[in-house]
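Dear Dr. H.,

I hope your travels went smoothly. While you were away I took the liberty of generating a structure for the chain from your last submission, since the lab meeting agenda had it listed for discussion. I wanted you to have the full record in hand beforehand rather than looking at slides cold. The sequence, exactly as received, is reproduced here:
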Amino acid sequence: MPGPVVSRISDTVLLSVLVARQTPDQLYAAVPEYPSLARFRSGRKLRGLRVDNQMWRYVSFGSGDRVLVFLHGMAGAYDIWWQQLDALSNRFRVVSFTYPAVSSLTGLHRGIMAILDAEEVGRFSVIGSSLGGYLAQYLVATEGGRIDRAVFGNTFPPNDLIEAENGRTAAIGRLVPERVVMHAFRRNVVTSVVPAAGGSSLVRAYLFEQSYGQMSKAQFLARYRCVIDSFDPVEPSMPHLIIESDNDPLVSRELREMLRRTYRSATVHTFHSTGHFTYLNAPNEYTGVLTQFLEEG
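The corresponding predicted structure, in token form, is as follows:
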């Protein structure tokens, strides 16, 4: 794990990295996966649907009778899943969203189901990570009759721990300018998220890009409200998989253990030393786990 490498970055260099606004070409200059991401962005039609006066953006493509719905986390967008979407679209129809500034699980639920109805999707499997994994649990609890399989990735069950730890910071975040919120976000990316991801240049570039205008402060804070929005989980009737990483810097061991206790019949796959964004920095391994789960039985 390359934590010591990151720790050797001087305060001056770290500050310049966090403050200087960077274009996508600058951000991805040393990222070998960028041509693939750029082709995905230019080659896939981004659709839109207005729900509750909020514009949702999403992609829907692929072949096959089965539909896979992908749900991103707090700091993501529809294309954070592009490596899995491309890999699985020759066997499945895939749908992936970017959440607008919707601040409740109920609101996210309405938007997602409105899009699936507009796309004439009946049954589907749901794959979510972080906030997306939490939202996947909520969909299982509310739309279980339409869901074939569910994946809860790098996530947590309903709990009081996250708000207790982050409530004060979130309250301050509502009062300060967007640039301050995104500055703090990038600092956490550099000091915590990237080291846990093995120093991944892709994880750094993608998350920095989100902070430089792809994700607004309103979206970020609304997504935090969804993370702490509680509900009553249910034991899924469909096959369900928990994906976790043993060094996840954003989901504590306590929360991971709570998730396994909440869904005692789940299959669990643990990645080792891949951090919070395994589907970004270890895409082939992650897609392999998904494929095995989706096609078994």
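Two observations you may find useful: The first strand starts at residue 47 and ends at 51. Residues 178-196 form the longest helix (19 residues).

With kind regards,
E. W.
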